[in-house]
């Protein structure tokens, strides 16, 4: 039996807690046999194929949904397209953010250098909106760059749109990049966390998703606890109770 962290399952939908670093489905840019949730689910379903409803970036952890049949997948895709799903993320970012704000900043489509090499590069930026609130702060006696101490915030983010790398790019836009982000982050702070906290992941977690079940009309509220590494780190920072945990 494959190792799946199942948060919810019924006849139509299965929700998993995806680990950071695991692919959602097979990718041509990853070596053959690289672990991915779709293949694990196919084994779990004894050969039945799961239907992808939405995606998470490989380095992002947290709750992700799959459909068990085509009908529910189509209905869920419509629910996502009509923005009837509320997704909540938590992230560890550089600096002290404002207590709360809305980031309304259009984003140009990010194109893959190989997969999208024939795609148009002249598209207009797309609407992108994220709201956030600060949950906690910490100041560490660890010098980074020209500063003798380093400051960080634990932030809850609710994206209103679903652009590629939206939260990562929005946090960079407001000068509070996510720790561990090698594409949109601050390499000095990433290095500091690798050296001082053995960081090996992007500190972005999909912690909760809420929607109306398309088949039963039940109000769904699914939460994904953070992984042990993240929980230990947040406890060191004095953030007990501010994040979803299996031990609370």
Strand coverage percent: 25-35%
Mean pLDDT figure: 93
Report how far apart the termini are: 28 Å
Rounded to the nearest angstrom, the radius of gyration is 19 Å
Fill in the CATH topology: Pseudouridine synthase
- By DSSP, the count of extended strands is 10
Name of the CATH homologous superfamily: Pseudouridine synthase
Number of domains: 1
CATH class: Alpha Beta
Tell me the number of helical segments per DSSP (H or I, 4 or more residues long): 5
Question: Keywords, please?
Answer:
single chain, 248 residues, alpha+beta, Pseudouridine synthase
Explain this structure:
The protein has helices at about 35-45, 70-80, 165-175, 185-195, 230-235; strands spanning about 5-10, 15-20, 50, 60-65, 85-95, 100-105, 130-140, 150-160, 205-210, 220-225. With about 250 residues, the chain is of the alpha+beta class. The chain is globular. The relative contact order is 0.17.
Summarize the structure.
This protein is α+β, with helices and mostly antiparallel strands. The protein contains 5 helices and 10 strands.
């Amino acid at each position: 039996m494959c190792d799946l962290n199942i948060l919810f399952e019924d006849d139509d939908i299965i929700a998993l807690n995806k680990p950071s670093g695991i692919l959602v489905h097979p990718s041509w840019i990853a070596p053959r046999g690289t672990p991915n949730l779709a293949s694990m689910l196919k084994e779990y379903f004894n050969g039945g194929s799961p239907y992808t409803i939405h995606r998470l970036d490989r380095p992002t952890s947290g709750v992700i949904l799959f459909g068990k049949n085509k009908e529910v997948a189509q209905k869920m895709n419509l629910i996502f397209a009509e923005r009837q799903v509320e997704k909540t993320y938590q992230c560890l970012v550089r600096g002290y953010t404002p207590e709360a704000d809305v980031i309304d900043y259009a984003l140009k489509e990010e194109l893959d250098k190989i997969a999208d090499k024939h795609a148009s590069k002249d598209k207009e930026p797309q609407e992108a909106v994220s709201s956030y609130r600060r949950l906690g702060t910490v100041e560490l006696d660890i010098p980074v760059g020209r500063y003798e101490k380093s400051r960080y915030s634990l932030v809850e983010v609710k994206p209103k749109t679903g652009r590629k790398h939206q939260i990562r790019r929005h946090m960079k836009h407001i000068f509070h990049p996510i720790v561990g982000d090698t594409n949109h982050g601050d390499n000095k702070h990433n290095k500091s966390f690798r050296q001082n906290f053995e960081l090996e992941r992007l500190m972005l977690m999909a912690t909760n998703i809420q929607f109306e079940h398309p088949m039963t009309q039940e109000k769904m509220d699914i939460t994904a606890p953070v992984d042990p590494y993240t929980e230990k780190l947040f406890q060191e920072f004095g953030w007990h109770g501010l994040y979803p945990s299996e031990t609370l």
